[in-house]
C-alpha cells in the first residue's frame, strides 16, 4: 500500500510538471504550470450525460495503450515487462502532449492519475491481477471519454 501511495504521489508530481501551457503572448521559453488537486475519492462525472472529448493528440496515445493491452490479452506470451514499457512510453508521450484545459481536463485526470499509478505498480510487480485491472481501467475510460 505504501508503494502505491508513493507511486501516486510521484505521478501527481509528474503532472504538475508535465501539463504545461505556453502563453501565446510570451516569446520566452518560460512555462506556466497548471496546479492539479485531486483526491483519491473523486469519481468521474459525465459531461451533462455525454462523454468528454479528449484532444486528438492525447487520445492517440490512450488508444495506443488500449490497443497494446488488447493485443497482449490475445497473446500466449506473458512478457509483462515489454507491455509495461510500452504503456510507460505512451504515458510519457501523453503527459508531454497535454493540451486539454477546463472540466474535460480535470475529469481526464481523475481517470489518468490512478491509471498511471496502476501502470507503475504493474511495471514493478508484473502480475496477471494488475493486468486485469488495467483492462478494466480502459472500460472505465470508454464509459466517460471519447
Report the total helices: 5
Instruction: Specify the structural class.
Output: mainly alpha
Largest β sheet strand count, sense and barrel closure: 2 strands, antiparallel
Mean pLDDT rating:
80
For the termini, the CA-CA separation is 32 Å
What helical percentage do the residues reach?
55-70%
Strand content: under 5%
Tally the beta strands.
2
In what order do the strands lie side by side in the largest sheet? Answer: 1-2
- The geometry reads as globular
Poorly predicted regions: 13-17, 20-41
What's the alpha carbon Rg, rounded to whole Å?
16 Å
Note the run of SSEs as H and E: HEEHHHH
Question: How would you explain this protein's 3D organization?
Answer:
The chain is mainly alpha-helical. The chain has helices at residues 2-18, 56-74, 80-96, 102-125, 128-144; strands spanning 20-21, 32-33. A two-stranded antiparallel ribbon has the order 1-2. The radius of gyration is 16 Å and the shape is globular. It starts with a helix and ends with a helix. Residues 13-17 and 20-41 have low confidence and may be disordered.
Q: What attributes characterize this protein structure?
A:
single chain, 146 residues, mainly alpha, two-stranded antiparallel sheet, 5 helices
Please outline what is shown here:
By secondary structure, this protein is an all-alpha fold. It has five helices and two strands.
Amino acid at each position: 500500500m505504501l508503494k502505491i501511495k508513493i507511486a501516486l504521489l510521484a505521478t501527481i508530481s509528474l503532472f504538475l510538471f508535465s501539463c504545461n501551457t505556453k502563453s501565446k503572448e510570451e516569446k520566452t521559453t518560460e512555462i506556466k504550470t497548471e496546479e492539479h488537486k485531486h483526491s483519491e475519492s473523486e469519481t468521474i462525472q459525465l459531461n451533462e450525460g455525454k462523454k468528454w472529448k479528449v484532444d486528438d493528440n492525447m487520445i492517440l496515445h490512450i488508444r495506443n495503450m488500449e490497443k497494446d493491452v488488447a493485443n497482449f490479452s490475445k497473446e500466449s506470451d506473458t512478457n509483462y515487462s515489454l507491455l509495461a514499457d510500452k504503456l510507460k512510453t505512451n504515458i510519457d508521450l501523453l503527459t508531454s502532449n497535454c493540451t486539454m484545459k477546463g472540466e474535460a481536463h480535470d475529469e481526464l485526470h481523475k481517470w489518468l492519475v490512478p491509471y498511471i499509478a496502476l501502470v507503475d505498480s504493474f511495471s514493478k510487480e508484473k502480475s496477471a491481477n494488475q493486468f486485469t485491472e488495467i483492462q478494466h481501467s480502459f472500460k472505465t475510460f470508454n464509459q466517460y471519454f471519447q
